[in-house]
From TrEMBL:
Record's signal peptide: none
Transmembrane region(s): none
Ranges where the record places region Disordered: 1-46
Name used for this protein in its record: Angio-associated migratory cell protein
Amino acid sequence: PSADDLADEMEDVDFDEEGAEEPDAEAWETEDDEGGEDGMEAQDDSEVTFSLHSASVFCVSLDPKTNTLAVTGGEDDKAFVWRVSDGELLFECSGHKDSVTCAGFSHDSVFVATGDMSGLIKVWRVDAKEEVWSFEVGDLEWMEWHPQAHVLLAGTADGNSWMWKIPSGDCKTFQGPACPATCGRILPDGKQAVVGYEDGTMRIWDLKQGTSLHVLKGQDGHQDPLTCVASNQDGSLIMTGSVDCQAKLVNSATGKVVCVFKMESMAPKVPAGEGEEAESNSVESLGFCNVMPLAAVGYLDGTLAIYDLSTQSLRHKCQHESGIVQLLWEESSAVVYTCSLDGAVRLWDARLGKMISEYRGHSAEILDFAVNKDASIVVTTSGDHQAKVFCVQRPDR
């Protein structure tokens, strides 16, 4: 093409649009750009930015032993282990051929596991930076390390859950219904796991025997796919969340539903106009407070609900302007953290139902985050291809 042709093509390019999509859009920013996109670019409260990913970053975990290393996985089929203090790369977990959606360290930080959507799971020895094990399952839905052993549990789209000893690879499978095992969690005693399925059922599995101890289905189960499960500190209570907007509290010993938290007074459903989708809502994340009988449930419509377990009632509703992606409780206080589609991390005092602080720095939605043990830092991953480290230590603690 001649120079004139190129010039004509250039005229057709809408630079505003282009720039917003490009990962290096930052380079174009000038002083007047304060507002950025919907004000999301304007402030960056982060201490460290990790930018080796070239697409959305889906998952992050911190190493439990020292909290000095993070592992992130992304849509670029890559996973990296890096230092939280300065964003320095330790090593790349190479060899994935699909988006890395699961990543985590073993309980003692000796191993790190990465899993991609196609079902390829790899385990690396952190100190040697070398791969020690890999295995291929069906499409991967979730993956979790055992809280006390070098054992990995994963759920797949065919309904099975898999358990392996690492690095020997001894394997056990737990056959669920013929639909995806959408979420799972090993209970704190390390002997049982709770798995939620797309058909609304939940099972509590005995990991040693490989048998299912309790099955919740029909009225006891959910009407729609499960999205998340959590347990309290001693594992006596389980909470399940679903696309049906309900959170169920279950006694893990009896498998009985203790109570159902429904969001009754949701914003009235506006009938969808031509070609519009009706506003959807679902439970996206939930968790128990360690120091008070409280539980938090985060909804896609931006509601953070704090429930009082002793009275089984709604204690506070904290409204976000956009959907909550995930929530985490601080380990030793009644502070709950949320990350949402507007790219901000927020800290809430669950006793008062009030926001304590807000941290921004991402130019797109936050997709996952992790909080370190002493609640001094938060590591986030985002659709803007970056992971960020925020210092959240407050003078009053």
